[in-house]
Amino acid sequence: MKAVVHYAYGSPDVLKIEEVAKPDVTEDGVLVRIHASSVNPAEWYSVKGLLIARGPNGLFKPKNPRVGGDFSGVVEAVGSKVTDFKVGDEVYGGRSGAFAEYVNVVNAIVRKPANISHEEAAAVPTAALTALQGLRDHGKLKPGDKVLINGAAGGVGTFAVQIAKALGAEVTGVTSTKNVEMVRSLGADHVIDYTREDFTQNGQLYDLFLDIAGTRSWREYKRVLKPNARFVIVGSPKGNQVIGPLSYVLKINFGAVGSSQKVSFFIAQFSREDLSTLREMIEAGKIKPVVEKVYPLHKAADAMRHLGTGHASGKIVLKM
Ligand SMILES: NC(=O)c1ccc[n+]([C@@H]2O[C@H](COP(=O)([O-])OP(=O)(O)OC[C@H]3O[C@@H](n4cnc5c(N)ncnc54)[C@H](OP(=O)(O)O)[C@@H]3O)[C@@H](O)[C@H]2O)c1
Q1: Sequence-ordered strand ranges (E) for the chain
Q2: Would the pTM of this model clear 0.90, i.e. be above it?
Q3: Which of 93, 182, 252, 258 is deepest in the core (most CB within 10 A)?
Q4: Residues 132 and 249 grouped into a single domain
Q5: What is the pLDDT of residues 251-280, one digit of tens each?
Q6: Ligand 1 pocket test: which of 176, 178, 267 has the largest number of ligand atoms within 8 Å of its C-beta?
Q7: Residue 241: what pLDDT?
Q8: Is residue 96 part of a domain?
Q9: Å from CA of 302 to ligand 1 middle
């Protein structure tokens, strides 16, 4: 089968497409023929090879050359112990090495939403789980909360706007001019174009701040936070070569020492329950993936370069 691999760390130029062995189905696994996958900053970081992330995958070159996480596809075989899937089921989920034609998946897999394509479904797992867990679990979003989403137009942001609305919030999205109308169309009550207006200076106060873009200092953020607001860090600028985004997380936490607002940072977890919740929200028409562009698998490097600009509008998808 075809798979995307990299034998060195670096720019997307290190990505190649290769013929590799098709995985066998394990007794507790499900063999999925992948129809589509999507690109996330996590893959960008692992290909780049931040020093902090190299430990488990090799200090000088990657021990595991495979790339990818999110997938949507069709079950081709099931292990002898698997009872909840059968051949032909449409499924989506997460598995390392998903920039490939097949994966054997043990846990992070559920039935795909029936009303969207594989390309759309592949856009969901990492980005939408992050948005859901950031708003609901770490942000403790309550109906009626005023929520600010900084970085509303990217993979995580486009889901966050819709999920926050579905959970009953009054949503303000921050984005650049080209994405203002798109973010509004997702249901945001207010959209701030950061190229024209400084959201830290407009006098509005928020209960919950979802910081996906990580563009400002704690001193600036604090101006727009209610006294007991929750500030959830999702992402940040790419940061330095050694610890990457962690430098930003440390800076914000340091700045917030002694503040009444609660700062948290989290790494999204794959959860079958949450993936099922997202499927229900999609099937109920409450959220819909925004796919900016679909690349064929052999153009994975171009897809990664596109994401690496930091200005994707929605998700970048790979089609097998
Ligand atoms: N904690 C976790 O578990 C987790 C999970 C997934 C992702 N992340 C992190 O979250 C971040 C975003 O991920 P993503 O998948 O959404 O990335 P993405 O699809 O590349 O989106 C990035 C978005 O940031 C926006 N942006 C850039 N500069 C901005 C600014 N000054 N103000 C406001 N928005 C700005 C861009 O919109 P414009 O073009 O309009 O500027 C773009 O849409 C990354 O740092 C990623 O590592 C964390």
Answers
A1: 2-5, 16-19, 30-38, 70-78, 90-94, 102-105, 109-111, 146-150, 170-175, 190-193, 206-211, 225-233, 262-265, 291-296, 315-319
A2: yes
A3: 93
A4: yes
A5: 999 999 999 999 999 999 999 999 999 999
A6: 176
A7: 67
A8: yes
A9: 18
Owning domain of residue 62? 2-124+289-319
307: tokens are 């994401």
Answer yes or no: are the C-beta atoms of 258 and 264 closer than 8 Å: no
In a mutational test of the pocket of ligand 1, which residue from 124, 130, 247 has the highest number of ligand atoms less than 8 Å from its CB?
130
C-alpha 76 to ligand 1 mean position (Å): 34
Q: Is the CB of 194 under 6 A from ligand 1?
A: yes
User: Ligand 1 centroid to 206 CA: how many Å?
Assistant: 20
CB atoms within 10 A of CB 319: 17
Q: Total domain count for the chain? A: 2
Distance CA 274, CA 128 (A): 9
Do 198 and 301 belong together in one domain? Answer: no
Tokens 């090495």 belong to: 97
pLDDT, tens digit (0-9, with 9 covering 90-100), for 180-194: 999 999 999 999 999
